[in-house]
Amino acid sequence: MTKLIALYKQPENKEKFDEHYFNVHTPITKEIPGLREMKVTKIVGSPMGKSDYYLLCEMFYDDQDSLQKAMKTDEGKASGKDVMQFAGDLVTLMIGEELDG
Asked: What are the phi and psi torsion angles at 63 (to 5°)?
């Protein structure tokens, strides 16, 4: 299982961020062909107290090929364009492989 991980830093305006993320960005992203599951985690702190991060989103695909194909679809492009417009300065994107253990 391959996943695209989006890690978001703390936004200046959390209400505005949440409004766009959950009401605009999430519905766009959920339409991407090949997306198996999408998990969103709100970061509430760290073992050292406050965290620089606000949200973590994991988007699961069957494999690397499925992810690459998904990113080339109109829906994948729309999701990428949207995230760069509303959170380009906040988001870090990573690709990971699930491991057993």
From this structure: -165, 180
Distances (CA, A) of 77 to 27, 49, 69, 74, 82: 14, 36, 11, 5, 8
Straight-line distance from the first to the last Cα atom of the chain, in angstroms, rounded to the nearest whole number: 14
Q: How many angstroms separate the CA atoms of 25 and 48, rounded?
A: 31
Taking the model in full, what pTM does it have? 0.93
Give Cβ neighbours of residue 30 (< 8 Å, ≥ 6 apart). 38
Q: How far is CA 38 from CA 46, 50, 51, in A?
A: 23, 25, 22
| Tens of pLDDT, residues 21-64 | 999 999 999 999 999 999 999 999 989 889 999 999 999 999 99
Structure tokens belonging to residue 95:
């690709």
